[in-house]
Amino acid sequence: MNKTVNQKAWFFVIPVFVLVAFNAIIPLMTVVNYAFQETFGNNQFMWEGTRWFKQILISERFHAALGRQVLFTLIILAIQIPLGIFIALNMPKEGLGVPICLVLMSMPLLIPWNVVGAMWNIFALPDIGFLGHSLNALGFDYNFTQQSGDAWFTTILMDVWHWTSLVVLLSYAGLRSIQPAYYQAAEIDGATRWAVFRHIELPKMKKVLTIAILLRFMDSFMIYTEPFVLTGGGPGNATAFLSIDLVKMALGQFDLGPAAAMSLIYFFIVLTVCWVFYNLMMRNESNS
Amino acid sequence: MSKITLKDLSHSYLQFPTKNEDWAIKNVNIDWHDGGAYALLGPSGCGKTTLLNIISGLINPTKGQILFDNENITQKNPVERNIAQIFQFPVIYDTMTVFDNLAFPLRNRKIPEEEIENKVKEISNMLELTPTLYNRASGLTADGKQKISLGRGLARSDVNVIMFDEPLTVIDPHLKWVLRSKLKELHQKIKRTMIYVTHDQTEALTFADQVVVMHEGQIVQTGTPVELFEKPKHTFVGHFIGSPGMNILPCKIDNGLIFINSTNIEISNSKLNNTSYSKVELGIRPEFISFDKKGLPVKVTNVSHTGKNNIIETESDGGKIKLITKASVKIPEGSAFLNFKKDRTYVYKDDWIVE
Amino acid sequence: MKKFKWLVPTIYIIFLMLPIYWLLNMSFKTTTEIINTYTLWPQEFTLDNYKKIFTDSTWYTGYLNSIYYVVLNTIISVAAALPAAYAFSRYKFLGDKHLFFWLLTNRMAPPAVFALPFFQFYSSVNLFDTHVAVALSHCLFNIPLAVWILEGFMSSVPKELDETAYVDGYSFWKFFFKIFIPTITAGIGITMFFCFMFSWVELLLAKTLTAVAAKPIAATMTRTASTSGYELGLLAAAGSLTIIPGAIVIYFVRNYIAKGFALGRV
Question: Do C154 and C253 share a domain, yes or no?
């Protein structure tokens, strides 16, 4: 669409700008304050420069948390994106099945995150949980509170349960926008099911999939509440992802300086990845 | 390549059709001869796209059969039928180059790559796509894209029929003409059966040797453009083809004579008997009416000049009548009399011609 | 192959429903049954857990608090985002692209990063433990999202609509409220749905910014889980109840969900 240049448009943006700036800039400045200074309470600060940053960047604890976080996010994306597309491809296109699928599939998205954690805790408990009990009955030695492998398995399964629907709904929306003529032409050209997916469905879903990957990356990279309630980061530090580790450091140990520095590094990582994605997405949008 | 026969074909999109209106296609019987250039003409919603999709195998008809060379292929899928179809808007595979687009149907049929290469080159030459052959197909203009869709159909050497579903809808007006003559030229070169669906009479009449006119799910007439013009078998054909369309006037039959109000109209080609009809109408094209000293009395109400001709609207006791005269003919003011050309005036009973 | 297509969504939905069923199952059991036996459905069906929640004010005020700040946040977010989204979809202005990206970055900020500064900041402006504080803090991620979704919907409305209205003599605001907003009702519905959703499911900030007066139900639950020992039935009942508002909201927007999740950008 051709947009006209109009500087007065700023007036429309002011409420949003004020509300967000109020929430974003002042707290962010607090974080920056802590990151570069040592505090002894009572608003006394001592300039520390980049000491905390250096400390965080070389600390094994941060490396471990970051490693866990990256691994977790990669696994999540590797499972949820293909699975979500696969389910969307098999969803009904018309009839009563459509609203039923959409409503039921959206359910997990609207459950408070700590309830998701609590629910999965109850569901996975080895003695009284359906999942834990069933796995043990099948002969697996499963206990997510004691074995880190099981804790990872449960956390990932929980996140798949919680968020795959978002990918499904986005892909479904993308698929619905494809004109029937494309399928008809492919049928006449003798295209295989795979070719239809590869050359028609996937290209048309590109835009929504970018959004899906972006949202899933962001949210899985920032995950806090669900694993906190489910495993508390344990056993040991097995599922202590970046946010959990950060809150532990800031509120648990009150190491404000390093915590603030870590916050900024953390934020910077998310921002960089999202910036790349955002540019990709905008390029897509201007192409079509 | 083969003759295509549609036998007692009916189709409804409903699972349990009850009323007459539930049927999109109503008992269609037609033969499409090998190598013919056909147009399927009708307004939106008359069932022409449905009919096309039934021939290509995208829709399974509720009743009836489709025969290719007298072999029943009703249950076969589009690939087995070996047909090509070009859609309203260009369908291209965005991620592929023009070359890969054209090669796609051939590769799916496991044709050796060498042969594909030759075939694609030949087709791209024919369609003037060679300069952009290795470009991304998504970067082309609408007419270029539509050429690719067409090329994908032409690339297969053995297709039984190439079908076009309003292929020029998204093409710029000045390119429409270019593409249309290209199609005509292609037909002469490759002698493949082509069926061209459109609601535009100019497109249909310029492209086709045989025009099939559809109306409310039925085929009302099949014929050459001249036949459709000179002798419409159904009032729908009369007013759908021609600009302005045929004048359809209510009339009375008395003792084998035709009257509009009290004026007797002479015609030469209808055998009329005395049985009474529920609805009788007289049809005459504006081109075959002229002013005269006697005949049907009318009042001239409006004149529009189109350059070479004048289109004159008149008002008679039986209703409005339009006629076309050469610009040189003097137009009487106020009252006038009209003369209908005897052998081009027809009587229609319940919309169908009486012969 | 095509015949078994329905199996995929069916299996997936069963997988989704299992934990929810288990939660409901627990909520109707007595504590003794939960601790002593493993049963697939309640043997001694009881409503005691729900009764406790509806009669104990520490429980039900949690719900009221949550709904209060969620609704407040939804209204603030959508009201502020409407004109801004219009500006982004219709006009070019100095710094528009950067501003848009900056807004989006706030959706990308890990809430854990902001928890402590938020606590200090809202305490310093005397808003700690109020509904307004939570509603305002949730604007951090809901406003960018609202602007983004609305911008998508608005951009799909042809500009000719605006021009026709001006030609017909409408003033800007009359056009905006009488014509433009009604044409994007679906988009506004979806935006409200998303704001509601993200405000309803968020806990970290809501918990950090409240103590007693505005404590959300979700936070009440964590307290119960940690302090009053093994009251799993009660916890399950409270959890089950938090699913209801979401379910109601989904039901209302069910026809727009598919398009809405693509943020109007399909």
Answer: yes
Residue C266 lies in a domain: no
ipTM of the complex: 0.87
Q: Which of C109, C121, C202 sits opposite A30 (nearest CB)?
A: C121
Interface test with A, best of C90, C128, C201 (most A CBs within 10 A): C201
| C234/C150 same-domain check | yes
Question: Are residue A37 and residue A144 in the same domain, yes or no?
Answer: no
Contact present, A276 and A44 (Cβ < 8 Å): no
Chains C and A touch (3+ CB pairs under 8 A): yes
* Residue A284: band (very low, low, confident or very high) from pLDDT cuts 50, 70, 90: low
Per the CB < 8 A criterion, the answer to whether B246 and B236 are in contact is no
Residue A64 lies inside a defined structural domain of this protein: yes
Give the other-Cβ count within 10 Å of A203's Cβ.
Answer: 16
C-alpha distances out from residue A264 to A219, A255, B291, Å: 17, 14, 92
pLDDT value for A41 = 59
Q: Is residue C177 part of a domain?
A: yes
Asked if the structure places residue A55 within a domain, the reply is: no
Chain A residues close to C6, C-beta within 8 Å: 90, 92, 97
What local confidence, expressed as pLDDT, does residue C21 receive? 92
Question: Are C139 and A20 in contact, with CB atoms under 8 Å apart?
Answer: yes
**Structural domain count, chain A:** 2
Q: What is the model's pTM? A: 0.82
Task: Tell me which residue range forms the domain holding C213.
Answer: 55-261
| CATH code for the domain of A278 | 1.10.3720.10
A202 and A163 within one domain:
yes
Q: Which residues contact B82 (CB under 8 A, 6 or more apart)?
A: B156, B158, B159, B160
Residue B46 to residues B9, B21, B28, B40, B353, Cα–Cα distance (Å): 15, 11, 13, 10, 20
Could you give the CA distance from residue B246 to residue B256 in angstroms, rounded to a whole number?
Answer: 23
Q: Would you call A184 an interface residue with chain B, using a CB distance cutoff of 8 Å?
A: yes
Confidence class for position C261, pLDDT limits 50, 70, 90:
low
DSSP string of chain C, one letter each residue: -GGGTTHHHHHHHHHHHHHHHHHHHHHTS-HHHHHH---SS-SS---HHHHHHHH-HHHHHHHHHHHHHHHHHHHHHHHHHHHHHHHHHHEE-TTHHHHHHHHHHHHTS-HHHHHHHHHHHHHHTT-TTSHHHHHHHHHHHHHHHHHHHHHHHHHTS-THHHHHHHHTT--HHHHIIIIIHHHTHHHHHHHHHHHHHHHHH--HHHHHT-SSTT--HHHHHHHHHHHS-S-HHHHHHHHHHHHHHHHHHHHHHTTTHHHHHTTT--
Residues of chain C neighbouring A119 (CB-CB closer than 8 A): 19-20, 22-23, 239
**Domain residue limits at B188:** 4-237
A170 and A251 co-located in one domain: yes
Q: Are residues B168 and B271 in the same domain?
A: no
d(CA C66, CA C242): 10
Assess if residue C149 is contained within a domain.
yes
Tokens of A161: 């349960």
CATH code: domain of residue B143:
3.40.50.300
Contact between B211 and B38 under an 8 Å Cβ cutoff? The reply is: yes
- What's the pLDDT tens digit per position in C12-59? 999 999 999 998 988 898 877 877 778 888 888 888 888 888 888 878
Cα–Cα distance measured from residue B285 to residue B306, given in angstroms and rounded to the nearest whole number: 17
pLDDT reading at A285 higher than 70? no
pLDDT digits (tens, 9 = 90+) for B243-292: 888 999 888 887 778 888 778 888 876 666 655 666 788 899 999 999 88
- Cβ pair A74, A217 in contact under 8 A: no
Q: pLDDT tens digit string along C84-95?
A: 999 998 888 888
Give the whole-angstrom CA distance, residue C85 versus residue C161.
16
Give the lowest-confidence range in A200-214, A270-284, B237-251, C232-246: A270-284
